[in-house]
Amino acid sequence: MKLAADNGLPGLGRVVIWFNDPGNWWGSTGLLAHVREHLVYTFVVVCTAALIAVPVGLVIGHTGRGTTLIAGTSNALRAVPALGLLIFLIVVLSPRIHIRQGLGSTIPAGSVPYLIPALLVLVILAIPPILTSTYAGVQSLEPAAREAAAGTGMTPLQVILKVEMPCSLPLIMSGLRSATLQVIATLTVAAYAPLVGGLGRLIVDGHQNLRDLRYGYPAMVAGGVSVAVLALAVDALLNLAQRLLTSPGIALSGTRQRTNPMNSQNPVQNAG
Amino acid sequence: MNELWTYLEANWTQIRGWTLTTLWLAAVPVMAGLVLALPCGWLAHRYRWAHGPFVSAMSIVYTVPSLVMFLVLPELLGTKILDPVNVVAALTLYTFALLVRTVADGLASVPAHTLATAAAMGHTARQQLLSVQLPLAVPVIGAGVRVAAVSNASLVSVASVVGTSQLGQLFIAGNNVGSLAPIILGLVFFVTIALAFDLIIVIITRLLTPWHKAVAS
């Protein structure tokens, strides 16, 4: 990249050299360790968000109450910049958290005061896509299916768990996928909080020593490429899981994919 | 509340400048991205060969973290690191990546019998596209533009980590001195800008689809 000689960056060619050095892959600050942290954080965040959003979404979809409120809140939450929310929570929460211990290599000693605000931001951002798709999934069900289930003597809870949830699973999963991709991307911003690991560490630290050939610009771009690869790989896995989990009876109705509102009306938002 | 007001008054000139920069950094890419996505989305809808490069390849672009994008583009474009052009180019690329798929989906959402009717009424292929298919795809495209605009506004704030001078600097300033006033102001400004964009796009979408109102009444 000769044409960019005057901007002071070491050049994209350095990224290939960085990837070719095994020393950058292994060890506690290597690429693979960061990938592992990234995956652990993503898993914890998405599971927490799903534990809150799926039950609430099922109840809202079942009763039809509160949809306007939830849709409005979800839209407003989209407008909140992740970086601003993160810094807000760090300034408010971190001085009040006094846990200094760490746990293994994923949670280094002293990182908890920063990890909690970082993960909290991600949970807050991951809830809207899961919540919206869950209640949209329940509401898109044919009323006849619900009435038939109630007619056979099912209690409301049974209708929710045995009919509405399995039938709206494709949409719930698509919400989970959007949320997961968003969390993987936003984790790179979360690394703005000190001591929070993941691939964002390479990116934020790399940005701070841009001219360093080992920990600077090449590490930053390598981190970015790894995030993209990780996002695509995780999405492919979730796509597979979605196919395996979906009841064959639902998967047969081929029109579902086309009418899936998550596809075009409600695409993944990049927040990182 | 008082503290916010004091901070706003004390730094008004700078905040006003940052607000203007943020507005154009967020708005220009939405327009540029849409203008580019319309023809390319049509190609992706019309020709099978164009679907892969535009829709699939662009979904990969969307997974690249913005902070990295802001610093890879100077290498590709030959610009300086702090040049706002990098932010505009990065956000245009993200918007394009999102909208090219939305435009293709929107055009595909128009029922075949509607197009057949237009053809039977004597519309040429070009008239069908411009006066039937495109207007009917407006609600879907509008929904995509709303997501792109809102997400652009919050992505602009990430550019402040690189050092671009805009409202995101309020977050950095608040973090450096551990003060909440600039952070809360920043959040209020960003959410207001995003919701204002959202409202403008909703209004434009309504104006472009007058038949929705006719059906409703």
Automatic annotation (TrEMBL), chain A:
CDD domains for this protein: TM_PBP2 (cd06261)
Annotated ranges, domain ABC transmembrane type-1: 39-238
Gene Ontology BP terms: glycine betaine transport; transmembrane transport
Keyword Transit peptide in annotation: no
A Pfam cross-reference name: BPD_transp_1
Membrane disposition: Multi-pass membrane protein
Organism: Streptomyces wuyuanensis
Family: Belongs to the binding-protein-dependent transport system permease family.
Protein name: Osmoprotectant transport system permease protein
TrEMBL record, chain B:
Transmembrane segments: 20-42, 54-73, 85-104, 136-163, 183-204
Membrane topology: Multi-pass membrane protein
Alphabetized CDD domains for the sequence: TM_PBP2
GO BP terms: glycine betaine transport; transmembrane transport
Keywords: Membrane, Transmembrane, Transmembrane helix, Transport
All residue ranges annotated as the ABC transmembrane type-1 domain in the record: 19-201
Signal sequence bounds: none
Compartments, record wording: Cell membrane; Membrane
PROSITE patterns in the cross-refs: ABC_TM1
Name of the molecule in the record: Osmoprotectant transport system permease protein
